[in-house]
């Protein structure tokens, strides 16, 4: 727990000092490096949330990651697969945007694009049942990562609603998640993160 002496003194950020920010960074560095654990905690909120599907949202996420892992994808890809629907509990109307925002500092532009657009690509399989345009993804045809996103849907996301699939547990993926979220690839705060690498 903080004590008053270990807190910044400003009440208006425009009046902050270098000493204030040294105090803040002493708190922020370990907090930032523990981001993977907070991500895992949030992912666990999907446990037991079926939303009408044959498996709960956590199982779907684990199946998607398990399929990617068993297919030989690298750890960054597997973590992206694991977290692609993490936004379901916060943003029912825009869950891909939430997952993309969480992953953006830590993955390649390609993986970010896949997760950002996976909802539209998955829509090819069900939008027509809801009166929507199942070919909405065609607006991206010609994009350099169109085929990669289509492959993510077809091989990993789409078939991962199977109650009988031999799904790896969350504990299997925990080291990958904590590793990925320790050091951002791109962030306005990257210099600070590299200082403690």
TrEMBL record:
Q: Which residues form the HD domain?
A: 57-121
Q: Is the keyword DNA damage in the record? A: no
Which terms are listed as keywords in the entry?
Hydrolase
Task: Please name the GO terms that the record assigns under molecular function.
Answer: hydrolase activity
- Note the superkingdom of the native organism: Bacteria
Q: Name one Pfam family in it.
A: HD
UniProt protein name: Putative HD phosphohydrolase
């Amino acid at each position: 727990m903080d004590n008053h002496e270990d807190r910044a003194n400003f009440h208006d950020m425009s009046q902050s000092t270098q000493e204030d920010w040294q105090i803040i960074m002493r708190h922020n560095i370990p907090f930032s490096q523990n981001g993977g654990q907070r991500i895992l905690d949030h992912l666990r909120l999907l446990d037991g949330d079926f939303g009408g599907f044959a498996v709960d949202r956590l199982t779907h996420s684990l199946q998607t990651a398990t399929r990617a892992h068993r297919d030989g994808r690298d750890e960054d890809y597997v973590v992206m697969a694991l977290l692609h629907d993490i936004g379901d509990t916060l943003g029912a109307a825009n869950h891909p945007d939430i997952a993309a925002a969480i992953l953006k500092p830590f993955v390649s532009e390609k993986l970010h694009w896949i997760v950002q657009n996976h909802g539209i690509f998955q829509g090819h399989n069900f939008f027509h049942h809801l009166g929507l345009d199942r070919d909405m993804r065609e607006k991206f045809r010609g994009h350099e990562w169109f085929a990669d996103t289509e492959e993510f849907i077809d091989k990993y996301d789409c078939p991962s609603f199977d109650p009988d699939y031999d799904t790896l547990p969350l504990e299997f993926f925990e080291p990958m998640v904590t590793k990925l979220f320790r050091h951002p690839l791109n962030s306005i705060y990257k210099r600070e993160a590299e200082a403690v690498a």
